[in-house]
Design goal:
14 helices, 328 residues, 2 domains
Length: 328
C-alpha cells in the first residue's frame, strides 16, 4: 500500500505535468499530461524500481528463489525429478497468477528426457501450462543440454548472454540512480569510496567473475577482470551518468518557453547580459559540494570535450572516454 511521503511524492509527480514535441527545430504547444509519466523523466524508472523491489516478498517468495527486471519476474524450483519439481512450480507462480493472468511461461532444464518433458504440465491460476523451449529472453534456450556438442555450444554462447544480462539487470539499474546518489572520482586524489560504494563494486566484480569463469582465489587484478568481462566499474558508471545528464541539462529546453529545465538553470544560470567573454563554462555553486548540481559543474568545467559535443550520441561517446580514464 502506498501512503505517507511516497503517496505525496506520487501525487506531485503524476499531476500538473505538461509536455511538448520538438521535431526538426519546430516546437509544438505544451499539452497537459493527464495520465502516465512524462517522457524522458529520470524519476519514473527510479520510483518504479523502488516500489516493485518488495513484490516477491509480499507474496511470500524468498529472494534466493526469484529475480526480476522491469515488470518481468523469474521464479525457479530445483528438484531430483519432475514429480518433485511439479508442485513447487505450481505453488510459486500461483502467487502471481492474479496479476499475471495467462502470461506465465515455464521451461524445464537438466537431464530430463524429451518424451517426459513434452507430456509434463502444471496448472497456474486454473490454466494448464505446457513447457516451452524458449522463454522471451530474446534468444533460444535449449530445453535440455545433452551431449558434448550442446555443452560446448552452451559454453561458447553463455558469456555473451551473461554479459547482456549484466548490462541490462545491473548496469542499467545503477545508471538510473548513479548521477543522483553517487560521487564520481576522476583521479586517485579524490576521497576513497565509502562502504556502500565498495560493497556494490564487490558485487560487480563477482558478476565479472561469472562472465569470465574466474574465481576469487584466482587473484586477478580488478582492472583486468572488468576489461575481460567488458563491464564498467561503479565509478565508471557514475562518471558516465553525471557527464551525460550534465550535457542534457545544458541543452535542455523543457523549462517553459524554450528555457532550460530547473536543474539546468541552477547549473548554468543565464547571464543578464551576454558579452564576448561569456562562455559555456558553469559557475561554481554555493553551499554543499555533494549534490548532482555541484558534481555537474565540476565535470562540465573540467572536460572541454564534453562541452564541445553537439549531439547526445557524441556526448555519450565522450562520457565513455572520460569514464574509462577514471580509477575504480
Amino acid at each position: 500500500m502506498i501512503e505517507g511521503m511516497q503517496l505525496e511524492w506520487f501525487k506531485s509527480y503524476l499531476s500538473g505535468g505538461s509536455q511538448r514535441v520538438v521535431w526538426n527545430d519546430a516546437e509544438s504547444d505544451f499539452l497537459n499530461v493527464k495520465y502516465g509519466v512524462r517522457q524522458g523523466s529520470i524519476l519514473g524508472p527510479i520510483l518504479y524500481l523502488v516500489l516493485v523491489a518488495d513484490v516477491t516478498s509480499c507474496v511470500g517468495i524468498g529472494d534466493e528463489e526469484n529475480s526480476s527486471y522491469a515488470d518481468d519476474f523469474f521464479l525457479w524450483a530445483v528438484g531430483d525429478s519432475l514429480e518433485e519439481v511439479g508442485p513447487l512450480l505450481e505453488t510459486k507462480p500461483d502467487a502471481f497468477s492474479k496479476y499475471a493472468g495467462g502470461m506465465t511461461q515455464f521451461m524445464i532444464g537438466g537431464k530430463a528426457k524429451k518424451k517426459d518433458t513434452s507430456a509434463f504440465t502444471i496448472r497456474v491460476g486454473g490454466v494448464e501450462l505446457h513447457p516451452s523451449d524458449e522463454i522471451e529472453l530474446h534468444h533460444r534456450t535449449p530445453q535440455c543440454l545433452r551431449g558434448k556438442g550442446s555443452k560446448q555450444r552452451a559454453a561458447l554462447i553463455s558469456r555473451k548472454y551473461l554479459r547482456q544480462l549484466a548490462r541490462g539487470l545491473m548496469v542499467g539499474k545503477l545508471s538510473y540512480e548513479a548521477a543522483v546518489v553517487m560521487t564520481p572520482r576522476f583521479d586517485d586524489k579524490n576521497k576513497e569510496p565509502d562502504a556502500a560504494h565498495r560493497a556494490v563494486q564487490v558485487a560487480i566484480n563477482d558478476v565479472a567473475r561469472s562472465i569470465t569463469g574466474c574465481r576469487r582465489r584466482d587473484h586477478i587484478r580488478i582492472e583486468d577482470l572488468l576489461r575481460r568481462a567488458k563491464i564498467p566499474s561503479l565509478n565508471e558508471i557514475t562518471v558516465m551518468a553525471v557527464a551525460v545528464e550534465t550535457w542534457k541539462c545544458f541543452h535542455s529546453n523543457d523549462g517553459g518557453c524554450g528555457a532550460r529545465n530547473p536543474i539546468g538553470d541552477v547549473v548554468f544560470p543565464t547571464p543578464k547580459r551576454l558579452t564576448r567573454s561569456t562562455t559555456s563554462v558553469a559557475c561554481p555553486l554555493r553551499g554543499g559540494t555533494d549534490t548532482f548540481a555541484s558534481r555537474a559543474v565540476s565535470v562540465w568545467n573540467n572536460f572541454e570535450s564534453l562541452r564541445s559535443a553537439r549531439t547526445l550520441a557524441a556526448a555519450r561517446d565522450v562520457a565513455r572516454t572520460i569514464g574509462r580514464s577514471t580509477p575504480i
